[in-house]
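User: If you would, consider this record:
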Amino acid sequence: MSIAPGSLQLENVSFAIGERTLVRDVSLSVAPGEMIGLIGPNGAGKSSLLRTIYRTNRPSSGRVTVNGENIWQRPASWVARHVGAVLQDMPAEFPLTVRDVIAMGRSAHKRLLEADSAHDRALIEAAIDLLQLRPLETRAFRTLSGGERQRTLVARALVQQPAVLVLDEPTNHLDIHHQLQLLRFVRSLGITVVAALHDLNLAAMFCDRIMMLHQGEMIATGAPEAVLTEENLTNIFRIEATLVRNPRTNTIWVMPA
């Protein structure tokens, strides 16, 4: 499956609900094919910021562009073709099979009620195989485990062939084997990814850069070793930690005291 990566730009993005500001003046430039990790404690604004990228939260100020296009000045169908998202709380009770859910990813590329083309079917088949979902393709989505649902939703996002892929806690419900497998797979695609991650060590292993958020503000951004410092971990996560190099990956490794 071939997906052309896109560029992503956040320019002084803020988002507020009433008088409560959830994201404050965040700027970020993501190059095509780059993987960015969003980290921060609960309530830091990670999910709220991601929602501005896939056109759910309209920024109170600032703008979000994909391939130079302001997503709030483009139709929702354009954004659906260019931005794929795997979210934390997807409804699971709809009566669809795994294959049906994956095929939904092609809807943004077609007219209402238009049948799947040979190209659509080829993309769906490729996604089923890539995510190792062949034994599950006829199963009802609601009967899947959390990890199986997550892999299905990633497959659905891939068949959209998005320029930018947004992942909100993609390793939720996954055991450590499938966490590593999923992030290795996403990384191997070579597409532009912005992912909110709770696990700091996974963020350090797989992300080119990390953005640390706290109370809606960007505290630091840069290479993992520049952001995951003892000072930041103490001030933002309120933990004492020793930082070492993982001898297998040579990435920074956080060891809480």
Observations:
- The longest strand covers residues 20-30.
- The domain at 8-256 is CATH 3.40.50.300 (Rossmann fold).
